[in-house]
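User: Run a structure prediction on this.
Assistant: Running it now.
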Amino acid sequence: MSTDNNNNNHSSFAQKRLPESYGSGRSKKRFRLFGNLEDLDIETVKTMQSTQAILNYKDRNSLSNLIKIYDQYFKCDQHSTESRITCVKFFVQYHTAYKFAHYFDVKGYAKFIAEVFFEQTTEVFKEIVNLVPVTRTSVIKDIYQRVVNDIRLNVWFRKWNESDVSGLKERIANFSYCLEYDRFEPIGIFTYDYLYDIIYNGNVLAKQMLIVEKRSYRGEDNDDDDDEISIQKEDVEESLTNNIKLSELLLEKIISFSLLYDKNRDFHNKRRRFRFYRNHFPYFVDKDQIITVAKVSKQFFKIISKMIVNKHFNWRGDLELNNNNNYRYNLVRSPPLYFDYESIKYIPYDKGIEYANHMMSRVEVFTIESDESDHSALDSTSRSLQDFRYEDYEEEELDRAYRKAIIRNGYLVYPPAMPNLKDIIVFRYFGYEDCYSRLLSHIIMSTPNGDGHGIERLAIDIVKDVEGTLSANIEFLRPLLMIHSKTLKSIKLSYRDDFQREEYDQLEWTSYILTLFVQSIHCLFDQRKKTIRKGSYEAGFDVTFVGKPIVSLFIQQQNEILKSVHNISKPSGYKLRKAASYSIDDEDDEKRVCTFGMGSVLFGCFDSYANHNVSR
């Protein structure tokens, strides 16, 4: 179906249920057309005069920016119609067809939409009906439930019903139609008659129709790795209590051994991912073991809570860092040291930017597994895009929209700055387009590089697509080398399995990385040493500042003889050669590790000489 016909069909269908003022302005839906996001720009405006902060209403990737504008909306006076319109419009444009619920806070999302339902003016309310809704029944029901349980509903509904019943019916119909647009069948609960029955007849049973299953609310995949690291009060109260009390020091020693990650416990895909993570950062502890041991007794809970302050663990779940009322029941009481990208949906919209920054303030290790394999996969995708056990949306169309979104700017959410970030580890990176490269560049550029701050290590697992095409965009290495040269110690690029001999021989990556490196520090280099030794194949270079060693480039070939020494594509005036060889990872026969260039480039003296000025 052509785009024009598609839009015409949609408009004619919308007019059956929506007045012209709403239907004509409705945005193109996820299953219909992605559209041109550049057409959605709003001018940058000032926030409330009390802060005089400048918000960027064109940035639809930054979570920090969204949180600030979200907070601005709730602080706006009801009579500040223009400001409220701008905030709602941005919220709608931020949650475009490219955004999916697995990467944003669905609770904060539901709270905002429910709040807009009560808007006094139609001008503000009608902006929300342009929203591309989430494809999760649980989230939609939560929005309805928030409206029904709001203490304002009784007075609000009666006032509208007595003064403008047709306008009230229209608003309710538009609201539910917007949220249920792409469903096979409408939920059919949130109607004028339904709310009338609750308000005027006191029908308590009607409210129970919106109860959401706790399991499906987050829309998690059926994956053990997604268990939330949160323990409720009743879990602690009902924990076993031992009569024999051991000293805390002894228990800490015992418990510390039980928290080690068991690589044999996980499924194959998780074992591969965490093996890669642990090869580059061996200090991860087992999240599931943390929860299991913490629930043994109150004493164990207290000890675990104290121990994990300085541990790196995957905290996928809601954190209550400032909840003083239930502090004794909070397992995680300090900002985490480790942040996996899947946890970005647990950074709340509604607690303000200071809380979001506080959550990220201690992060030292950032990991991410790319979704790009789903973009080119021939079979089903790896994610559940609607609620567990629900089939309320066309699965093929939803998968198709998701595959397209993965490589589009707007799909990924950029996290708040991580000022103490040291390690970045990327798994299954294809590098289609520049979507993930932009995300990594944002993280790199938002990390400070002075006074003890700065990124030290990057490890990335590079994979071909199903057609055997190498597409990896590694432009993010440029800001990494430019900004974090003083602290950077190593970069390792690992190639996954089926790379051919001629692709290795080309050494495009080494050429590109070293060229960037030379360009970034603007200093003369001098080739000092070249060695080719016996056995498998071994080549090494000492690349130096004039008279000062700065980089030791050393690469080994263990199981194959791939002798490759080529001239590097280099700026005029530089004399530099490269050498590389490759090895097969003994722990994983499916992966070849190319430890070349920055893969084994050790910045031993980089800290001292990065700013050393040398005249040509």
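The CA atoms of residues 141 and 210 lie 6 Å apart.
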